Amino acid sequence: MNSIYFYETSIGRIGIADNGEAVTGLMFAGRAGAGYGETDAGPGGHDAGPGGDGAGPGGHNVGPGSDDVCPAGFALSETALIKEAAKQLNEYLEGNRKVFDIPLELEGTPFQKLVWKALQDIPYGETRSYREIAESIGRPKACRAVGMANNKNPVAIFVPCHRVIGSDGKLVGYAGGMDIKEKLLDLEKQMMKK
User: Which of 50, 53, 82, 169 is the least crowded, having the fewest Cβ atoms under 10 Å away?
Assistant: First the structure.
């Protein structure tokens, strides 16, 4: 059974989805153009709506009865796995976690999965360019394809697509918005100084 639950975090409302065995999605709910990973659609191709409050791990949970839209094919349910993922996400956002220890199941093409694995290899506090990712997977001319795979990452933050920057060192596109990407990179940079 696919489940999703929403939490208020220091970077805004986040939806976390699972399939009962692994986390399958993270979405930036209630942000224009921000959905599942780097796309604008939530799990099942639907964006989450605004609203909700309450308390829970990782911030405030936004559960049943809120204004959030439960995507087609998903139950609005705070499973143990979603609760743990939210806890770890909150620890990360507080600067108390550098590596996530939750099972992930990513649906995508073999190329996308190769890119997402390379993203997971980017150390905390560091960045890589699209070109560097393309070279690391043995496809040095596939910079645009790497960008498209980054765009389809269903579990942003857990698979750190925010650590990918332009070849000129500038920040480029992010599902949660450029302000969130900058906050995440600044957080990691500050934690590396401690």
Answer: 169
